[in-house]
Amino acid sequence: MFAYNRVSSKSTKTPWIMATAVKTSTRANVPGLSVSDLSAFLGFGDFFSPIEQAMLQSFLDASIEMLSKYTGYEPSDINYTIKYDRHPMALDYTGGISGSGEYSEWINIPRRPVKSVNEIRISDDVITDYETDTESNPARVGLISYSSSYNYPSFSEIEIDITCGPTGDVNPAFIVAALLLASYIYNNRGCAMNNAISDSGAAAMIRPLKVAIGGL
């Protein structure tokens, strides 16, 4: 879950926006992050029992998911539905949750790289009047019909279906960080997972990939 805000040039106050990323497909294999790659990184051979192979695969899968969530970077193709609890509107009030304000033109997408925006829904209604900017970092969408000032009786939920994944090679820092983290988990089985990213050195390796979106 992510929290961020957007401020327009006409506002000094912006509510927090909650965005939840829900996977809607299985992650594709990540080149350079196989059991054989982890085995070589650990200095082992390829002679593992099925149980050991399954254990290494689970550590590797967990490392990829943790680092993807930590950075927002997706190392292989995967589909998400990003659910926002409201539009990131900018308001000119000092308190309360109602009033007249201006909707922010752009909505940031807390996953990257974004290959495509597949569908946008507001309160379950499919929206077709929008523009996308997948070249920005982070990627974003603009709801053209919802950018003008007007009174709003309530906040409407927004859902954006996207496909993520690198268009070229996987960022090498992500591969090294995932191998560091998986190796750390292997060598420290039973460790506190919330500390493993920093203790393994993966956080330092991958920090340049992390893009802050408002409150992130």
List keywords for this structure.
216 residues; alpha+beta; Immunoglobulin-like; 2 domains; 6-stranded antiparallel sheet; 5 helices; disordered N terminus
What do these coordinates show?
This protein has five helices and twelve strands. With 216 residues, the protein is α+β, with helices and mostly antiparallel strands. It folds into two domains: 111 residues, Sandwich (Immunoglobulin-like); 81 residues, no CATH class. The strands form three sheets. The protein has a six-stranded antiparallel beta sheet with strand order 1-2-3-12-7-8, with no helix packed on it. A three-stranded antiparallel beta sheet has the order 4-5-11, with no helix packed on it. Strand 4 and strand 5 form a beta hairpin.
Q: Which architecture of the largest domain would the CATH scheme give at its second level?
A: Sandwich
Could you please say which CATH topology of the largest domain applies here? Immunoglobulin-like
Q: How are strands sequenced across the largest beta sheet?
A: 1-2-3-12-7-8
Spell out the helices and strands N to C: EEHHEEEEEEEEEEHHH
Strand element count: 12
Unreliable stretches covering 5 or more consecutive residues: 1-15, 90-100, 147-154
Which bin fits the share of residues in helices? 25-40%
* Shape verdict: elongated
Instruction: Please report the number of helical segments.
Output: 5
Strand fraction band?
25-35%
Any idea of the CATH class of the largest domain?
A: Mainly Beta
Terminal residue distance: 10 Å
| Main sheet summary | 6 strands, antiparallel
From the structure provided, what is the oligomeric state, counting identical versus distinct chains?
single chain
Look at the structure and give the mean pLDDT: 80
Number of domains: 2
**In terms of structural class, how would the helical and strand content be classed?**
alpha+beta
- The whole-angstrom Rg is 20 Å
